Amino acid sequence: MFHPEEATVSRPAPHEEPTGVYIIDPVRSAIGFSARRAMIADVRGNFTDFEGLLKLDGARPTRSEVYLSAQTGSADTGCRERDAYVTGPELLDSATFPLLSFRSTGVLDAGDDRLRLAGFLRIKDVELPFHLGLELRATSRDAYGRDRVGFAGTLTARRSAPAPGENPAPGAGVLLTGDRVKLTLDICAVRTRPGQSR
């Protein structure tokens, strides 16, 4: 099974903490992945088609929520043959399972300006528990008067041998040919205005 690994979040000063619903700007954001292949080298790439939102509560950060999804067919490793393998039936099977998604189930305040987000990553028909760390990089207001936030984060999990008598979950290794999978997030998000759904 997979074991979540802890990651941290650095929070700004209280008056700078963003609050509201923020929609991820895919043009200014990136979601990368890496997976150990044959225990030798990492397969690295990016998802080029994704979306998501962040519900941020600066006063009560443990009430914040994060939702992300990526089109599995958009995985790009820079090599067509490798792309076909990653998106094919042996790994992501994008024809049958077009979405990879992450949903947070809680934000854990670890103190000393450190936060961890607990949640589940859904790959194919399996949900895997993860801890996601996000670091607030910047807050700004653009030329159109819209509030923006920038986050960077890493989501990592490892696969270990099942306990005696326990079978691994079907599909649990769909993004792994080795022991480790990592998603890296470089997110720019725009706060929605009242009445704006996207």
Describe the structure.
This protein is mainly beta. 4% of the residues lie in helices and 52% in strands. The protein contains 1 helix and 12 strands; from the N terminus they run βββββββαβββββ. The protein has one helix spanning 80-87, and strands spanning 2-4, 20-24, 30-37, 41-47, 50-56, 65-71, 75-76, 99-111, 114-123, 126-141, 147-159, 180-191. An 8-stranded antiparallel β-barrel has the order 2-5-6-8-9-10-11-12. The chain is globular.
Q: How do the strands and helices of this protein lay out in sequence?
A:
Blueprint: E1 2-4, E2 20-24, E3 30-37, E4 41-47, E5 50-56, E6 65-71, E7 75-76, H1 80-87, E8 99-111, E9 114-123, E10 126-141, E11 147-159, E12 180-191
Antiparallel strand pairs: 1-11, 2-5, 2-12, 3-4, 3-12, 4-7, 5-6, 6-8, 8-9, 9-10, 10-11, 11-12
Largest sheet: 8 strands, antiparallel, barrel
Radius of gyration: 17 Å
What structural category arises from helix and sheet content? mainly beta
CATH level-1 class? Mainly Beta
Total DSSP helices: 1
What share of the residues lie within helices?
Answer: under 10%
Order of helices and strands: EEEEEEEHEEEEE
Task: Kindly estimate the percentage of residues that lie in beta strands according to DSSP.
Answer: over 45%
Pick out the low-confidence regions: 1-15, 160-174
Mean pLDDT: 78
Summarize the structure.
This protein has 198 residues and is mainly beta. The protein is built from one helix and twelve strands. The chain has one domain (2-191): Lipid/polyisoprenoid-binding, YceI-like (Lipocalin).
